[in-house]
Amino acid sequence: MIRPITRRGFLQAAATVPVLAQQAETKRIAVIATVYKYLSHAQHMADRFLVGYPFGGEWHTPDVRIASLYVDQKPPDDLSGQRAKEFGFEVYPTIAEALRCGGSKLAVDAVLIIAEHGDYPRNDKGQILYPRYEFFEQVVKVFEAEGRSVPVYNDKHLSFSFEKAKAMRDHARRLGFPMLAGSALPVTWRLPELELPLGCEVESALMVGTGESDAMDFHALEAMQCMLERRRGGERGVKSVQMLEGDAVWKAGEEGRWSKELLTSALSRSDTPQGLTVTDGRTQDLVASGEVRKLVANPAAYFIEYRDGVSATLLMLTGAVGDFNFAAKLKRVPQIQSTQFFLSPVPNVTYSACLVHKIEQMIETGVAPYPVERTLLVSGVLESCLTSRARGHARLETPHLAVAYQAPKESQYCRV
Amino acid sequence: MQAQRPKLAAITTVYRKYSHAQHIVDRFLEGYGWNGAHHHPPMDLVALYVDQVGADDLSRNRAARFPHMKIYPTIAETLTCGTEKLAVDGVVIVGEHGNYPRTEKGQVQYPRYQFFEQMLTVFRASRRSVPVFSDKHLSWNWQWARQMYDSAKELGFPFMAGSSLPVTWRIPSVEFPAGRRVSEALCVCYGGVDSYDFHGLETIQSMVERRPGGETGVKWLQAFRGDRFWEACRQAVWPLDLMNAALARSHTLAPVRAGFNDVFPTLDEMRRLARNPVAYRYEHEDGIKCTMMLMDGLVRDFNFAARLDGAAKPFSTQMYLPMPDGRTTLANFFSPQVNNVEKMFLTGKAAYPVERTLLTTGLTAAGVDSLFAGQTRVETPHLAIRYQAAAESTFWRT
């Protein structure tokens, strides 16, 4: 009895596929990864091209196949060999060979650089030195040698160094290939479905994040940026940053440098308050009760002053909550706007399917669905904040962060 | 607008961490995140009854921290606040969790009906009734549930009940399309019989009740368990494409293969993961067929799918429960439930019809009966319950 249903489904599907799409060739991609082990970014993102992923109410099978893989590190729990064998592609010893699939010419239609996780040193600012720039440079070398480029996705920040990040973006511009980058937070579901109206006037904004630097603060900064870039006049870049830690964070709150009202609103979206909630299940107003101060051993505030005068703050409150929440006050809108960027449970991390769908969209259309400048700016903001920390939490002017761009008109976060 | 803040009484089985009473009563006492603020309900929960007070009890802690709330030793005293007459403007009954015996069919005999009856005694003696919310199904016993419903009608007080599933977040955030005919609907979820099956049934019912013509009631139900569940899959007793569509909404599909974090299982693989699945298959009076599936081991969330007339693809969504322990610390799906109940206490009108829960209570009992009777089909003429859905959506979107 199953067969007729399956067959009918197949016939219906076949009838609706345009002839052109049937003739189009399956796109081939190269994956350039630091490490391919269980729950590394490379595994959970690249796997979606191998086994499909949930999207829009069905298990979606991309018309894209992994043609080659490069992995920088192969720890004992490496999965790259197993995947290559099962899904019929090669793991190449160099990036250039991966892009050429062992031949003499660029042999893929897109490149995914997924350089998160793996064993890499940190610099004195605490940044993990993932070799994203170095991977990208090698990709660009092949493009230049061939006189042909293909779309590139770069996972997370472009580089720990703004200078390198900017060089990456500039290469993409110069060679004219579509480039997409960043975190899954801007594109995951939001609880509730909040989008700031394009052209809104932002009075102030606050993001609450949790987890380690410089992995999780990047996610939080990008989540905030994808909201604020929609403000009036478009993005024009960042004028100064300052990072504070410890008691100075609370003191800054007392002085009105960040808004307790916005923090209350952001935390009202959290499903993971710690402390007394863990003790006995109770709901909490962590700000009014003062509990938030007790729960966070090492708070950090990232102050961002934009060139158009708007100010925004990221509070990393590890110990108080375990999720990512945003709040903003808009001019002439009495109610504070707030939402949670929904990170669905481990191990499925279905939010990464939302991001993979954007990557697939770029591969299929040749157009990045949102500007890489968002990630460029956030890469630079994060670096400068960590520089501020290294320089005794000084306020730093950031003339190099005059990164201007327009937010996409259409919302890019998942609502399907 | 009421001149004074309404006074409430809560009648509970047990008040410990993560019991339903703790989730619900705490929200009235402590407030909760709502519409981007920490919301304090504009009403006072002044009287509390707790049936079982164990070593892990929190009610004494709460009474000490919220001195306006007094704990009374009986339900009558709670409702009268120790006086002769009903002294509250609303009643919250939370008869979930606690140690109660099971029936021979495995149902936990939570004393919701007994609590309700004692409340009615006070209502009648006081010649006054106030709005009532009763958590989860009305009773494990269908006759008692029907009696609770009839008594509420007779005395004419607003009455709400049920699960938080109908009112929690949906991912994606969609309402059942107005005016669309539907032939099949199902929910793939998890948990046990006489427990989460009720939540799955409320999930389905909160959607299909919005079909043209409104709810017409249910004619029959048949349960399938274990091998018979898989045999029914093979025979496509329920539509497998809808089952797959519901599974594609899950955020917790158990990875069937080591080293893969998110893969879609084949039917054989599902069988390896879900060791003892249960389905309730039932048909409404107007012909729509529904299936509630408990697939423990495969998913840990509530996923809905339906076949709408004229639609090429299934309509589907997940009713999202931010569920402690582990995934979250706060069971915030109780927030929209409490908020809807608050509205009833403020307006004197139920936010959604209690007939939904009367029907799902009957379906839960019918499921238990079918399982007990060897998974045979049970006719349900007593479930010819007709009602219209609330015009406005009541699920969490803000």
Descriptive terms for the model:
heterodimer; A: 416 residues; alpha/beta; Rossmann fold; Dihydrodipicolinate Reductase, domain 2; 2 domains; eight-stranded mixed β-sheet; six-stranded parallel β-sheet; 35% helix; disordered N terminus; B: 398 residues; 31% helix
Task: Please provide a written account of the structure.
Chain A has helices spanning 2-16, 19-23, 41-51, 80-87, 95-100, 132-146, 162-175, 216-228, 247-254, 260-268, 276-280, 291-295, 351-365, 373-390, and strands at 27-35, 53-55, 58-60, 64-73, 90-91, 110-114, 152-155, 179-182, 190-191, 202-209, 238-245, 300-306, 311-316, 324-330, 337-341, 396-397. Chain A is an alpha/beta fold. Chain A folds into two domains: 2-182, 3-Layer(aba) Sandwich (Rossmann fold); 188-342 and 375-401, 2-Layer Sandwich (Dihydrodipicolinate Reductase, domain 2), CATH 3.30.360. Chain A has an eight-stranded mixed β-sheet with strand order 9-15-14-10-13-12-11-16, with helices on both faces. In chain A, helix 6 (132-146) runs parallel beside helix 7 and helix 8 packs across helix 14 (373-390). The longest helix of chain A is centred in the last third of the chain and has 18 residues, at 373-390. With 398 residues, chain B is an alpha/beta fold. Chain B folds into two domains: 7-162, NAD(P)-binding Rossmann-like Domain (Rossmann fold); 168-319, no CATH class. In chain B, 31% of the residues lie in helices and 21% in strands. Chain B has helices spanning 20-30, 59-65, 75-80, 112-126, 142-155, 196-208, 227-234, 240-247, 267-273, 334-347, 354-372, and strands spanning 7-14, 32-34, 37-39, 44-52, 70-71, 90-94, 132-135, 159-162, 170-171, 182-189, 218-225, 278-284, 289-294, 302-308, 315-319, 377-379. In chain B, the strands form three sheets. An eight-stranded mixed β-sheet of chain B has the order 9-15-14-10-13-12-11-16, with helices on both faces. In chain B, strand 12 (278-284) and strand 13 form a beta hairpin. In chain B, 56% of the residues are buried. The mean pLDDT of chain B is 97. Chains A and B meet through helix 1, helix 3, strand 2, helix 10 and helix 11 of A and helix 1, strand 2, strand 3, helix 8 and strand 15 of B.
